[in-house]
Amino acid sequence: DLCRAEFSSMLKSHSANQLQNKYETMSSLYKILSIFADSSEKKIFPSVLCRAIEYIDSNLSDSDLSNTDIADYLCISEVYLRKLFQKNLSTSVNKYIGDKRTDHAKKLLTNTNLSITEISEKCGYSCIYYFCRIFKQKTGYSPGQYRNNNHHTFF
């Protein structure tokens, strides 16, 4: 292995001249780390999952967004859709949508002066009370508390 060879070289050189070897040791360590970084698996998602995510992102404000809608748009079964999310993202479609809506609400609460009702609607909730309950459940804060703690003022 490339890592073993580099590590052996590092150990052999360490016993000789200390100052020079400090730099060599550090250089070898960086090489080892770079080898690990290059060899780490980069997850590539199936294109159908990417299209599902794009569809969800562009329809987040639709309070009727459902697995059926997404599966129909992609021309796949709901079972396959659920398996795609579980296998690749380790989550359900509904939890993914809920998390995206919460993240979107956080951004709107932090970066806009929209009312909580408007934010609720933009995040796909037809009932503000349900939105507030779900938001608090996910973040530990009501939307108003979250805004007060995180709101950015723009001049």
Question: Secondary-structure blueprint of this entry?
Answer:
Layout (H helix, E strand, L loop, with lengths): L1 H13 L3 H22 L7 H12 L8 H8 L3 H12 L3 H19 L4 H7 L5 H12 L3 H8 L5
Helix pairs in contact: 1-2, 3-4, 4-5, 6-9
Word description of this protein:
By secondary structure, this protein is mainly alpha-helical. 73% of the residues lie in helices and 0% in strands. The protein has helices spanning 2-14, 18-39, 47-58, 67-74, 78-89, 93-111, 116-122, 128-139, 143-150. It starts with a helix and ends in a 5-residue tail after the last helix.
In short:
The chain has 155 residues and is mainly α.
Q: What's the count of strands?
A: 0
Strand content: under 5%
Report the average pLDDT across residues: 83
Q: How many DSSP helices?
A: 9
Oligomer: single chain
**Radius of gyration, in angstroms, nearest whole number:** 24 Å
Largest sheet: none
Morphology: flat
**Low-confidence residue ranges:** none
SSE run = HHHHHHHHH
N-to-C terminal Cα separation, in Å? 57 Å
**What level of helicity do the residues show?**
over 70%
Which structural class fits the helix and strand makeup?
mainly alpha
Features:
155 residues, mainly alpha, flat
